[in-house]
Design brief:
Helix content is 62%, strand content 9%.
Length: 595
């Protein structure tokens, strides 16, 4: 799926077990367990200040002179010590989880980047860049809240109220029931009003966010061309429509949960908790069932519980989001890679053979059918045919951007699937019609095929590709970073790609109309450099301009994914078939332009 396609699919919520989340969090399980243990100790120690506070309240309500009781100082010390232990444990636990989170995010992004580098090129054609960016950036970020905060805070949110409740029941079971009552009402009301699960909400929101991300990428990628023709509003309109759809969808999804939370939270406030305890406590004091000091301390403890409990409620969204994110990360990590070998192959020569090759990006839509071709070593073969005939796909199979569905492609007598990627790309140099320049320096871009090349060799290749003067004029020369220091036109990017290929000096060259984006004068000079480069090498050339095929040793004509003709330029013209018709049409166009 490309960026200009709508990424919105029929809504389908997958049931994701804890397996993917456990797998993603495995590297941080040990430090997380330590942090949880430390936080558990801190939460258990919360009973210390509660008990000390009860002892002090007893002295105050009995109207005794506190200065006459030696145990008052001890109670104060225990109160301060208990709070200190609690705070220190919480701080240490969060410190551990934050360090673990930083390490996990770095590891995941490196792993995902490595994975993306091993996926076949066809995978990227089926997944929008917005979806890929969401997984690598947003989904990894989604784990931060869970790892760094939610796990530890959930332990505190469960254990601290539990310790508080046990303490309240230990003081007086009636007061304990008074503390539980508002909490029970809160959970009952929230469950009754909230019908949609957090996991379902997160899955649907994620689908809408991916559509918005793809629309943004699509808009900015084509905005220049659209502005030239005064139609920028069309893409902007699509972006606006997708954004409005997301807003409406998000509002509809979260409104029931937010309404339920707002209504239920009324019953879980400090004032309601205190009123519940005081209502039961006053009556119990009047009946001489409990002491006033107990009511005061239990009400204080009760007013502290809502914040801890609400932490659990709010962390449910973080957990659901993390489960969904982990599922998408694991699905990406489990995508099938092209199988590779580490053993260097012994290549006989630079000949290329294709035997009964069939391939399709989708199983039900083959692009190439039963292709059998031989590209002898040190010859030039031109591939021609109508748009969509399969020319670029055929050369992509040789460079192993995909694996064939049926048949075999052999290089130097060895199946390309049995050649290590490093050796394959040292043997086959590819110049695509739309060259890509990574965001590194110009020198590094040219030296991608030969990282050990000297600056003199890099500059020599640039001179042969007629791009040296342009590079020298950049702010940092050859050290200018593409996209940051250097804004290059399509033709300039293509010349750098040609310089890269000249420097790599591979025995087999795949050229997809190497001079299509270069002005005619420069193209004429570059053709001379490419001809010198082609000497003694196997060249497979995709020709969109038929004038460049006349000097080829062999011309292969593709139509509807099949080989329909092949031979020299003269032989094909004499045959009077598809090639002759294309040649006549091309000549008419050229003559028409000349007139």
């Amino acid at each position: 799926m490309t960026d200009d396609q709508d990424t919105r699919q029929p809504r389908r919520v997958e049931r994701i077990t804890s397996g993917p989340l456990f797998r993603v969090l495995r590297p941080v399980l040990a430090p997380t367990a330590v942090a949880v243990t430390v936080q558990a100790v801190g939460s258990l120690c919360s009973v210390i200040p509660f008990s000390a506070l009860l002892a002090l309240a007893d002295r105050l309500t009995q109207h005794q002179d506190l200065t006459q009781h030696q145990d008052v100082g001890g109670a104060l010390i225990w109160f301060v010590a208990g709070l200190g232990i609690q705070s220190a444990c919480g701080f240490l636990a969060l410190l551990i989880t934050h360090f673990a989170d930083v390490g996990l995010q770095a590891t995941l992004r490196r792993t995902l980047s490595t994975k993306l580098g091993r996926l076949p090129l066809g995978w990227f054609g089926e997944h929008s860049s917005g979806r890929v960016r969401q997984i690598v950036q947003n989904d990894v970020d989604s784990l931060h809240q869970l790892v760094a905060h939610t796990l530890v805070e959930s332990v505190a949110g469960v254990l601290t109220p539990a310790v508080g409740l046990v303490f309240c029941f230990a003081v007086d079971w009636r007061l304990g029931l008074a503390v539980i009552a508002p909490m029970a009402v809160y959970f009952t009301v929230f469950s009754a009003l909230s019908r949609t699960g957090n996991r379902e909400i997160m899955a649907r929101v994620s689908d809408e966010l991916a559509a918005v991300s793809a629309a943004i990428t699509d808009y900015f990628r084509g905005v220049v061309v659209l502005k030239v023709f005064g139609r920028a509003g069309e893409k902007y309109g699509r972006f606006t429509a997708v954004s409005e759809r997301f807003r409406a969808e998000f509002t509809g999804l979260v409104r029931p949960a937010m309404r339920a939370q707002a209504v239920a939270s009324v019953f879980l406030t400090a004032s309601v908790m205190a009123c519940s305890v005081f209502a039961v406590g006053v009556w119990s004091v009047q009946q001489h069932w409990t002491r006033a000091a107990s009511v005061l301390v239990v009400s204080t403890v009760a007013m502290m519980l809502p914040a801890a409990i609400l932490t659990i409620a709010t962390s449910a969204q973080a957990r659901a989001e993390a489960v969904e994110a982990a599922g998408r990360i694991v699905r990406l990590l489990d995508e099938p890679e092209l199988p590779v070998t580490d053993r260097e192959a012994e290549l006989g020569d630079a000949a290329v053979e294709m035997r009964d090759v069939s391939f399709g990006y989708r199983q039900d839509r083959p692009v190439l059918r039963d292709i059998t071709l031989t590209f002898p070593a040190r010859t030039t073969t031109a591939l021609v045919g109508p748009s969509g005939a399969g020319k670029s796909t055929l050369t992509a199979l040789l460079a192993r951007f995909h694996d064939v569905d049926q048949g075999q492609i052999r290089l130097g007598g060895v199946d390309v699937r049995d050649i290590p990627p490093g050796q394959l790309y040292r043997t086959v140099g590819v110049l695509l019609q739309e060259p890509q320049l990574p965001a590194v320096s110009v020198a590094e871009n040219i030296a991608l095929g030969r990282p050990d090349a000297t600056r003199a060799e890099i500059e020599r290749a640039a001179r042969e590709a007629l791009i040296h003067d342009r590079i020298a004029a950049l702010p940092k020369g050859y050290d200018s970073v593409v996209g940051t220091d250097a804004r290059l036109s399509g033709g300039e990017a293509q010349r750098i790609a040609i310089a890269r290929l000249l420097l790599a000096d591979t025995p087999v060259l795949v050229l997809d109309e190497a001079t299509s984006a270069i002005d005619p004068d420069a193209a004429a000079l570059l053709h001379g450099a490419i001809r010198r480069l082609a000497e003694g090498r196997t060249v497979i050339m995709i020709a969109h301009r038929l004038g460049s095929t006349t000097g080829a040793d062999n011309t292969v004509v593709l139509e509807d994914g099949r080989v329909v003709e092949q031979g020299t330029h003269t032989q094909l013209l004499e045959h009077g078939g598809v090639y002759a018709r294309m040649w006549n049409d091309w000549n008419d166009d050229v003559c028409g332009v000349a007139r």
